[in-house]
Amino acid sequence: MARITDQKRIDRLKESTMKLVVAHGFGGASVSLIANDAAVASGYFYLHYKGKYEMVNALLQDVYQEIVGKLEELTMKGSGFNSIIENLIRHFFQMANNDPVKLKFLYVLTHDYNFVIAKEMRENIYGLIQKVKELGHVSGELDKMLNEDDIYLCVILNTVQFINQQYKKSSKDIILKKKDEDHLIYLTRKLLQQ
Length: 194
Fold this sequence. Notes:
CATH superfamily of the largest domain: Tetracycline Repressor, domain 2
Shape: elongated
Radius of gyration: 18 Å
Number of domains: 2
Distance between the termini: 61 Å
Order of helices and strands: HHHHHHHHH
Number of strands: 0
Largest sheet: none
Number of helices: 9
CATH class of the largest domain: Mainly Alpha
CATH topology of the largest domain: Tetracycline Repressor, domain 2
Helix content: over 70%
């Protein structure tokens, strides 16, 4: 028998999962809590997902796919090294301002050892970072001693950490300012320069 899918319910499940993982961590966000928050029966959750881990992991891969898509777009434009770095950081800030739960969700799961980027996704990200690294080496904008892991840490993880730090300064959701973006771009360039 075919599954009947109501996309609005699935979207509510995804939103509730992200929100509750941010609020309670992976362990504290039970399927019943997620289903209740999404106003669906727990059975509906299990109709579409084997369990909470599968749902959360799928959401994490979706967020990473957005990052890969942006990085692909920037590298295909023929932009220079500094332009790619700046625009990727600005993309994270835009994501944070448009959907703060998504960025907080990414932060929570990057600090949870139960979750890793899927192998294919990791290969895609690192393949793109390799291209960015080569651009930086050719232009002289990147220290030749830095590798793909360094760039991933300085640009992606540092940005997520920086934005989360801004969130922690306030008890409510905040809109990040351009001066915050500019400051992080400045710091990142300093970290990556020769």
